[in-house]
Amino acid sequence: MILNNFFKNLIYDPVSMLGLSVFYILLVNLPISLGAVFKKKISSTVRFFTILVNLTITLQLLFRWSISGHFPISNLYESLYFLTWGITLGQLFIEREYQSPIIPSIAIPIQLLTVAFACFVLPDDLKLSSNLVPALRSSWLVMHVSVVMLSYAALIIGSLLSATVLFVNKNKPLQIRSSSAGVGGFKISNYPLNNLVDTTEFSHSEELDTLSYRSILIGFVLLTLGLISGAVWANEAWGTWWSWDPKETWAFISWLFYAAYLHMRISKGWQGRRPALLATAGFFVVLVCYLGVNFLGIGLHSYGWIFG
What we know:
By secondary structure, the protein is mostly helical. The longest helix has 35 residues. The protein folds into two domains: 129 residues, Four Helix Bundle (Hemerythrin (Met), subunit A) (Up-down Bundle); 142 residues.
């Protein structure tokens, strides 16, 4: 009976039903991922469910695209699922570099909260697909919004990894011994005659720190491309490159924040947990940029829900 109702609703409203399916998959996956952390063992079940979530969101967005006739990232409901898709994809890529139960245990709660917000908190009028206004009927919609959302996903993952660094191996000193271009590194032996090259063993916190740096660097590059494409699109649509809209201002603040982080890491050689603390604070900067200013009820990027 339950399955019959599910498939019946899936036919009439595939977007909502697939969205709910993602929520329940994540709800099952969360305790499994937390259990894997306590057991200190990688779970293939967690990885399977993460891949299933990613594929389900992909299918949901494709249905939405087919129904609406435009790229499914034009309102808050769609962008929340696109963000979750980006975070799951980032999680899978990071797990290929560093297989640890810590990675899904920090990514899955954010995915679950994001999807729960989209399913149960958003009012219905922000979930419905609608026709695009003339200014949004542009190929720049795909370029600008998708790149910005992927940058948010990468920056959120990087910030969460940095938060984990503050608690993992907290009694051990944290030194940036790798090049930050990859996990692991090498050191030359002190014996010049044999020219031996020994692998350097990195602690969990050092590996997480390197992955955090790489994720933030990717997110920063994507955010830069997003700001540039947004400026070009704004000039094409409204005849101005920059209007100091609240969203634009906070996107620029986010860019400056992570630029300062990267500058401290690369130029100043920040060591220890100071850069991790700074990157952790970046999570809240991204949160304000993505959601906070959109509910002010003003500007070109407003959703007009809380104050509008």
